[in-house]
Amino acid sequence: MGGGGEAETEARELTAGPDDAGLRLDAFLAARGACPSRAAAQRAIEAGEVTVDGAERPKNHRVEAGERVAVASHDAPAPPPPAATFAVVLDDPHLLVIDKPAGLVTHPAPGHHGTTLAELLPQGTHVVHRLDKDTSGLLLVARSEEALEALQAMMKAREIRREYTALVEGHPDADSGTIDAPIGRDRANRTVMSTRTDRARDAVTHFEVLERLPRTSLLRVRLETGRTHQIRAHLAAIGHPVVGDPQYGGSAGGRRVGLDRQFLHASTLMFRHPFTREFSRCESKPPVELSHALDTARREPVSGGPDGG
Questions:
Q1: Are 42 and 59 in contact (CB under 8 A)?
Q2: Residues of the chain with CATH 3.30.2350.10
Q3: Residues 82-137: pLDDT tens digits?
Q4: DSSP for 90-122?
Q5: pLDDT tens digit string along 269-284?
Q6: Where does CATH 3.10.290.10 sit in the chain?
Q7: In whole angstroms, what is the distance from residue 11 CA to residue 258 CA?
């Protein structure tokens, strides 16, 4: 038993994915949250606290997909955080559909010290796809390796329909549309995804305007592909960032409607069961903070009108 309070050193490891390929090592560590900043990452590298596939590399090393990056941590033990909770929408012997709250990280990652969804799920289960930390809503979980492989194949074949509710700045020109624009790490800001990239991957997003508000629009968004930050990057690319999204230009709108997270909620999942072929439609209503923000957005004065704005 330890003497309480002494800092412990342990290695935290993360694996570079396809979207990380080409990033400098220091930028990669900052982007993935392993270090609080790029400068902190450089200090850790220079102190010999970072290895790539077991060997030290310079800060300008370009990471490749599949490389394992280990970072030494000297964090003092902290008391366990309150347990996060989530609702189970669908439960059968092969899969789960759960309703993830905003603020809950899907998987453990270097630099994150709170409870993650993966730690709360039953042992032996696997998350089939991801939601960003501050995006709420429905996630599909496999109860076995066999179910995981089947569901991932369905996802790749676009046999699982995923719909989101989003509040965006401004008013799209059309009531519906498709954004077909490859995205990857932004050339200037490697922590965000954009169309201004040297490593683009196909990305297709469909949207439909549900309601036009004084300064914003409520959208139903459907993913055809599932790239990192895809909805957020695509809507920002057409000049309509998600309200409350600090990384993609939505901070001002969030302040106006009293929201400190992006207004993005995974509202609907539709699919045929991989083994029984039974059709399922799972739905989730936006949480209370989004409902309050939407009410505020409906009462906003029209920008540039007699009430100002």
A1: yes
A2: 87-298
A3: 455 789 999 999 999 999 999 888 866 555 556 778 788 888 899 999 899 999 99
A4: EE-SSEEEEEEPTT-BSS--TT--S-BHHHHSP
A5: 999 999 999 999 999 9
A6: 10-73
A7: 39
CB half-sphere exposure, 205, CA atoms < 13 A:
26
pLDDT at residue 108 in the model? 62
Instruction: Work out the angle at residue 288's Cα, subtended by the Cα atoms of residues 222 and 236, and round it to the nearest 5 degrees.
Output: 40
Q: Which of 5, 246, 13 is nearest to 134 (CA)?
A: 246
User: What are the tens digits of pLDDT across the range 177-193?
Assistant: 999 999 999 888 878 99
Whole-model pTM above 0.70? Answer: yes
- Catalytic site residues? 132
Class of domain 87-298 (CATH, top level): alpha beta
Place of tokens 């730690």: 119
Residue 242 has pLDDT above 90, yes or no: yes
Chain center to CA of 198: 21
Statement: 10-73 belongs to CATH 3.40.50.2300: no
How many Cβ atoms are within 10 Å of 248's Cβ, its own excluded? Answer: 20
Q: Check if the beta carbon of residue 228 is closer than 8 Å to that of residue 135.
A: no
Q: Between residues 129 and 35, which one has the greater pLDDT? A: 129
User: Taking Cα atoms as reference points, which of 105, 102, 106, 101 lies closest to residue 128?
Assistant: 106
